[in-house]
Amino acid sequence: MKKGNVAALLPIGVFLVLYLGLGILFEYGMGISMGFYNIPIVVIFLIALLVACFQNRKLPFDDKLAIMGRGIGDKTIVTMILIFMAAGVFVGTVGRDSAESVAYLMLSVIPAEFSVAVLFVVSCFVSISMGTSVGTITLITPIAVAVSAASGFSLPLCVGSVMGGAMFGDNLSFISDTTIAACQGQGCKMQDKFRENFKIALPAAIVTLVLILVLSLGSDISGTVQNDYNLLELIPYLIVLVGGILGINVFVVLLLGILSGSIIVVAEGAVAATDLLGNMGTGAAGMFETTMVAVLVSAICALIRENGGFVALLNGIKRVFKGRKGGQLGMGLLVGAMDIATANNTVAIVMANPIAHEMAETYDISRRKTASLLDTFSCVFQGVIPYGAQMLVAISACAELGFSVTAFQIMPFLFYPFFLLLSSLAFIFLVPDNRGYEPDHAAFEEEVLEVAEEA
Fold it and tell me: Which of 64, 108, 254, 268 lies at a 20 to 30 A Cα distance from 449?
């Protein structure tokens, strides 16, 4: 084993202590609503970066800047940032009205006793199309409240079904922050990661749906939920979804989605042509924090790697987790721990990416498997923690409509995240993975050329 430097991991420790400590203080000590999300995460990362800069005094500051520059300028980081921006423009262009239309269409044609199952299925589809679990929960939870009030189904069951479906799409969507971060961080094609994930997510979704149907058919319900709907605006989402599955370049897919969405919303009169660019800008601006997190984390990780922190962490992991299966479990627990500490699955993946990349090479784990594990386990933990944005947004949406429900009332009905965890463990320990780690030949060639030029 190469000798590592445990002290080089101090910036990560500083970030976790500050963010988790202040989050707990704000949320539970001071009673601030959405306490974790009132903390400027960019500022906390800047403090962590400052700590990293003060380490290794033998290295001149100019050299540290050069190291950070190489980390930020890595092809995967640049690609990740550009995809974040394009996805933000897409969401800003097409809006989110079509999500409600899908729900109301299905509720109008399917018998009332299947309405909770409809909520789950609609949430799955909407979150895959939109690429955001929080956005899906924001849109569909009010419908879940209406379904509960009209039919008599338990409100926690309805809300838990929406949250489960939202995490299904968050895990699989081609324009989800988590998918973008995991795939670009591991140098994996999105369609490869989708296929790997789908094999894990589909069994969990089917078992969840069956359980919801069993609970629903045993309930005495009545009433219906009716509302207007318009499905034309769904076309851009379908273009992105189908294009991603077919393996078309993600930038081409997003540009087609933006173009078709622009034509539809303007032709329908949903958005004035003069406002369209403004909406695009707003969508892109919504990705600012995620983009800055990617930039700062890549800079911090570059310094940590230079100072031997990742070698020390990897040596510790190898002592605990043995073999390829153990390495896969270690990856899952690593990103899960990051998610528990940050309450943000995208940030957790961005932080775990460089460590997981080293682990993939050490344990001979394929890139697609690594990306899938990072995304899946982060969604498992994010989907159940009581202080996550998904849970807090769902509770807030209910409260705004005059209905009180707590996180601990909803958690027993979060069937999908729990089944996703079981499915993930089954695929790690029971299903063989014959494809090992694939070297990044392009990156290796670039490194050889750089060494040759320096020589």
Answer: 64
